Amino acid sequence: MTQVCITAYVYGVVQGVGFRYNTQRQAMVLGLTGYARNLDDGSVEVLACGEQQAVDQLMAWLKSGGPRSARVDRVLVEPRGVAEYKGFSIRY
Length: 92
What we know:
Domain Acylphosphatase-like: 5-92
Protein name: Acylphosphatase
Pfam family, one: Acylphosphatase
Distance between the termini: 32 Å
Strand content: 35-45%
Keywords: Hydrolase
Number of strands: 5
């Protein structure tokens, strides 16, 4: 079982629409660790660590638009070194 970590930068209407909360719920269902946080430029940063298949599922969910209230224009993904996080948090 391969553990991976990625950072995704999600652009569009993704702040003030419950995006971080819904991302947290989705990540927890998939058994991922990491965090979601708003950035000053209006995007959301999502760091997700876990099994490759679960991370891929979260990325597919993000790219498909995330929660219904959001509008995702683009998602940029960068691989990260594997790190240990406890749970999946919302950062402020």
